[in-house]
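Teaching assistant here, posting this on the class forum so everyone can see the example we discussed in section. The complex has two components, and the goal was to see what a joint structure prediction looks like when all of them are supplied at once.
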Amino acid sequence: MTFKELIKKIFFIEIIGGLALTLKHSLSPAVTRQYPEKRITPPPGARGLHALTRNESTGEAVCVGCGLCAAMCPTNCISIYTSEGEDHKKIVDRYEVNTLRCLFCALCVEACPYGAVLLTPHFEYSGYSRSEFIYTKDRLLENWDKYMGGAKSREYFDKFWTPKSADFARVDAKGSESGVNQ
Amino acid sequence: MITLTINGKEIRLDKPVTVLKAAQQAGIKIPTLCNHELLKPFGGCRLCVVEVERMPKLMTSCTLMAADGMVVRTESDTIADVRRAILEFLLINHPLDCPVCDKAGECELQDAVMQYGPPTGRFIEEKRKVRESHDDPILARNMERCIVCTRCVRMCEDVQGASAISMIERGGRTVMEPFSSRSFNCEYCGNCITACPVGSILSRLYMHSYRPWQMDKEVETICGYCGVGCSFVAQVRDESIKRVIPRIGFGMNNGLLCSKGRFGYGFIEDSGRLKTPLIRKGDALVESTWDDALDLVAEKLTEIKDSYGGRAIGGIASARCTNEDNYVFQKFMRVACGTNNIDSISRTGYAAAQKYFEGLLGQGINANIIGGIKRSDMVLVLGGDPASVNPVLGLSIRAAAKAGAEVAVIGHAPGLERYKTINVLPPLFKEADILEALLLEVFRARGNRGESHAIDRAVSEFDKEYSGKTDMHGLEELKDKLLKSDSISIVFGMDLVQRTDGHRALFATAGLTHLLEARLYLLSERPNEQGVIDAGCVPDMLPGGRPLGIPDFRRRYEDAWKRPIPDTEGMTLMEMIEGAKKGDMKALYIMGDNPVFNLPDRTFIKESLASLDFLVVQDIFLTETAELADVVLPALGWPEKSGTYTNLERRIQLLRKTVETTSGMDDWSIISRLSCRMGYDMLYTDAENVMDEISRVSPLYRNLSYKEISDKECLWPYNGEPLRGEAKDIKVIKEKSRDYDADLYLALDKPLFHSGSISQRSPGLMDISPEPRLKIGTRLAEKMCLKDGDNVIISADRGSISIRVSIDPCVNGKVVLMSNNFKEKGALGIMGYNLDPVTKAPGIEGCAVTLRRG
């Protein structure tokens, strides 16, 4: 043991240093937020509860049931059942998200060619049974009405998740459905 | 030996193939859209271009034959540029509707674009618009997506031989269209769906209800419709079969299917499926539990066995059940019920013919590979239309015809209309006369082979009896061609067995097979007709084709089953039913069949079954027979069970459980539970367990395991030993054929789109062919002023049926054809029968009918 070390030990130099740090932080403003007493607004693009985009003109879901979100999902929490509609078009019978299993990775949002599925910033939801966390198509559309829609959704898609179909708008400008292919 | 280098890899080829094939063999992938394994090289899409050293331009590898010393590169910047340009051109008109296209995920264009395609398109012009066609009940046509590879047209023309579709218009407007314009008027094989690389032709069954990657499971199994036993992969989502796909190089159908196989699986989801056992209480059948139902059956069968003996009990097995089911069934009948009265509906055709042929020509005579037909230089088709009874076998005949073989048809075979080179139309119901004449002529020209005593002697005796000159009925050409051909296939349909003198046609065919050294193929309408015989569900033979009458064989089975087997031969199918009417037969156990509907003379069969003391029916639907039963036990359909089927070429194939169900129980499982209740323990755990016992007991299936059956082709004689030694002496009963002088006769039609009565529970097949039709000839239609679709009432001695007509120019003027597939409109119901004294098959010829408008 050198002389310097001996002095450090006798006069508790390191302990004093530690106490000084504690004193400094106890006098500075707190970082911890007092949730739920004090609520915060999530930043734009925060990944919370799922929603299905509602087509503003028709009032129906934008989703065509291509199943790419479910194919992409790492936890298999999305299940989609489609069938042939009366006019031979594909219709989505069931679209279910098991939010208990969801990782909120937003790969589904990224995969969707039409911007039909998204994660709203709303993150505070609770329930008394597991089944309440399985969001059906209707509830997902309700989520859109509650937490998205209008200018908020335009900002969301413009800033974060431009759907791939937008790339084709130029190519297929005459109004037919555009797609995901490339 | 050709040696070429592709991408620096040296490849040696034994025989000359195209560069594309050579690359595929070496595991090098070259993208292509117009090339298909089953089709000839086409060179249409230009996507498979490669660079070949010392060749100035890029070459299409699908049409370029590999040559010695060739140096090929499949990927380079130039090639990528060309491919990108081609794909960009294709995408000018291809809609980008992948998110709603059912092909997405397995679309060849999508894959190619992902790998080579341009990131964006440069064309801003409007894409062509073509209305999606849903005019057809089964096939959806979206010609916006068509990339004009013509694979569908070539498949339809070259492989299926139906020539139903063509490309129309020119340039960018080119699309595929059926000749019948809006809806398809074709064989509905659906092979165009397989051929289409994009989503232009799609099946409408379960349309838009799945994506290829959403399937829960894929099961490699076999089709349960006819005796060919095509292999396919059934894709299942949520315990429902969404589609079946045949695969190239998988099974003997090699990527092809027929309408029944491809669209006929829907019956298992029918709402009429039996779910619980039913017990008769008074006039009604009421739902019951398995325990009560099985207890009742056991109690009743024991009672009847004790009071009348085993001979008063009979069993009817089914060619729609597996080998395992049938083996357990016959064991139960022989051991627990103490009777040899076991037969199946196959007695009316396949079993009768098979037994006759084996008796004369030795075991395994019909064990010929279907592929052999393609290699024949002459195919002789008798007694039925192979293209509708066994469509995939029919394709082999068409392929043989395309390769230059002679196809001779005796009788009426509409499916071979464009392929036959010789057609002999015998006088009505007198095919046997023609065949006998042919046999004599061939015998006189060629003499005996001296290889098989039984048949040689029989043919010589036959010749002596027939010392006179034969009436050739215009057979000279056929005879000459037969004598000239080296490799002959005889395709024998069961219409000839269903004659009172059916044994005459059988004898003549056996003689011809022997003298011409031909390969014999028996058409088989049900999936396991051969298996029923091999499993021992015949009154005179034990499993493995061992005659019951020989005590040594019997002892072998008695040792294995540890119980005595009755030594007298049992009754055949019709004898059992007639016995029921007479009161000799007290109880019948019917597994998986519907004799009321599938046998002639419905009223008689119904009365006979009604006069039984006790009738048990085990089936998946409440059939006409089940409605008469005292106890009905719900069983499983073929997609729901595991087991093996033996097809018409005697190949054993594994049937794998595809979907789970709660509605019934395996047939073998029901029988073994019943057997335990009757004091004879059968403790099987699963179907494989039953097969283990069969392979231990039956000398034919020696050492056969499921592993072996699934790993390699399981062909006759497996590892087993066929019965050698002298074949039975078959007495040739010489008979003068009857005269048929009524104005009009009814004959049985075997349609392409239906089989038995399960096909009418399949929505897909019902969409194609929703109602039965009476086929009448053109002359008769003119005489009666009938148009297609007019309603008529057909009356015979045994009843009349109201039905719509369809005019078929190939139908003989003195006969009308009607199928036996639709409830209450089955031809057999109003036909009478006379038993053939030799084969014991019911002869249904000569049913005189009258027709009036109605």
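For the discussion questions: The first strand of chain B starts at residue 2 and ends at 6. The mean pLDDT of chain B is 91. Think about how each of these relates to the inputs above.
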